[in-house]
Amino acid sequence: MSDIPEVMGELAQAGMVARAVEPAAGEGGGVSADGHTAEGSCLNCGEKLVGPHCYRCGQRAHVHRTLAAFMHDLVHGVLHFEGKFWRTLPLLAWRPGTLTREYIDGKRASYISPIALFLFTVFVSFALFNAAGGFGDNAMKLDENAPKEIQAGVVTALDGEIARAQDQLAEAKAQGRDTAALEKQLAEWEKTQEVLGSAQASIGLGDAKQGADPVVTGPAATGPAAKGPAAAAKADTRQGDKAGQWLQDTWEKAKANPKLLLYKLQTNAYKLSWLLIPLSLPFVWLLFPFSRKFRMYDHTVFVTYSISFMTMLVVVASVASAYNVEALVIAPILYAPFHLYRSLRGTYSLTRMGALLRMILLSVGCFIAMMLFVIIMFGLVLSG
Fold it and tell me: At a CB cut-off of 8 Å and minimum separation 6, what does 258 contact?
């Protein structure tokens, strides 16, 4: 019996040692039947809690181990659903200058960051574009009212693309190079060919293909026999000019199949949408040249928020156009310059006249930036 106090003392001492090594042990591990936990210390870093969040690592003090909590975390991760999204969107729509200025000045906990909002907007935008049928007719649709020669040219051009892809794939295999990208591209062309083939019977394309002179792309389109002796002589003069030959080939492909070109632009534009930010920045900087009050960081936040909202307006107009809702097509077009005016005035504390003048100048700059973006896109798609 005399050993009992000794044993109890050793157990107490062991408990104190364990407590020193692992201070959170024994606290915060209890889980109730409904999935709630009761924490005295942070479950992440073990720091003693004195509020709803751990002051050391920032994790929430209270943890929910329920399926509903899991879904909440999923939505929160996408939209910052706990107030951020719904606090950001109204300000972005009606008081964009206030939102931009507060974010620049450091009041950021209440709002979604501009780059996060931009990426989310781009992703949702192109998902909705595809759901609504994209930017008008694409390469996988044939216009029944188009001349038979053009319809035949679409099919023939696609056949040429498939043949070219097959040749490139065979060459890559022979050289032992990676063929994954080429195989993927060939699969896309073949899938498009299947869709076009199913459309031929409904619009009588088979007859048109037989009766019309086919539009040929690739080497056959620019070969000596393509357009008779005159074309052969011209081809001979261009043999040493590879750049001119490339331009001629790409122009022939685009002219023979504009819908296919539009389809490729549509499917690749979102990957390079971030280019709109650096393309737009110089035009905003020119509104306040050599300003010490407004830095390039201010302009970047302004541009990113503005592009995000303008993308939303384009989405609304495009979806409305797909469903023939004219009012929702016109309203975003009319609201865009007013939104730009309010954003400039609020962000840079401008007078009405100063904001109006800069809005007009920046609208021109936005048009130029868009044209540069389109040119870059065309160049990349045509050279691919």
Answer: none
pLDDT per position as a tens digit, 316-363: 888 888 788 888 889 999 999 999 999 999 999 999 999 999 999 999
Bridge partners of residue 37, in order along the sequence = 31
Measured from the Cβ of residue 155, the count of other Cβ atoms closer than 10 Å reads 22
Long-range Cβ contacts of 328-335 (<8 Å, 24+ apart): none
Picking from 100-109, 179-188, 327-336, which range would have the lowest pLDDT averaged per residue? 179-188
Of 230, 340, 234, nearest in space to 283 by CA: 340
pLDDT at site 143: 44
Residues found in the chain: 384
Q: What angle do CA 277, 279, 285 make, to 5 degrees?
A: 90
Residue type at 167?
D
Tokens of 111: 């709002």
Structure tokens that stand for 82 in this block: 């706990």
Token digits for 353? 């006249």
What is the phi/psi pair of residue 31, to 5°?
Answer: -120, 125
Report which of residues 327 and 135 the model is more confident about: 327
Determine the Cα–Cα distance for residues 222 and 253; give it in Å rounded to an integer.
Answer: 11
**Integer CA distances (angstroms), 352 to 11, 137, 214, 283, in order:** 77, 42, 59, 20
pTM score, whole prediction: 0.59
Q: What is the mean pLDDT of the chain?
A: 74
Tell me, letter by letter, the H, E, C secondary structure of the chain: CCHHHHHHHHHHHHHHHHHHHCCCCCCCCCECCCCEECCCECCCCCCECCCCECCCCCCECCCECCHHHHHHHHHHHHHCCCCHHHHHHHHHHHCHHHHHHHHHCCCCCCCCCHHHHHHHHHHHHHHHHHHCCCCCCCCCCCCCCCCHHHHHHHHHHHHHHHHHHHHHHHHHHHHCCCCHHHHHHHHHHHHHHHHHHHHHHHHCHHHHHHHCCCCCCCHHHHCCCCCCHHHHHHHHHCCCCHHHHHHHHHHHHHHHCHHHHHHHHHHHHHHHHHHHHHHHHHHHHCCCCCCCCCCHHHHHHHHHHHHHHHHHHHHHHHHHHHCCCHHHHHHHHHHHHHHHHHHHHHHHCCCHHHHHHHHHHHHHHHHHHHHHHHHHHHHHHHHC
- Phi and psi angles of residue 23, each rounded to the nearest 5 degrees, phi first: -65, -25
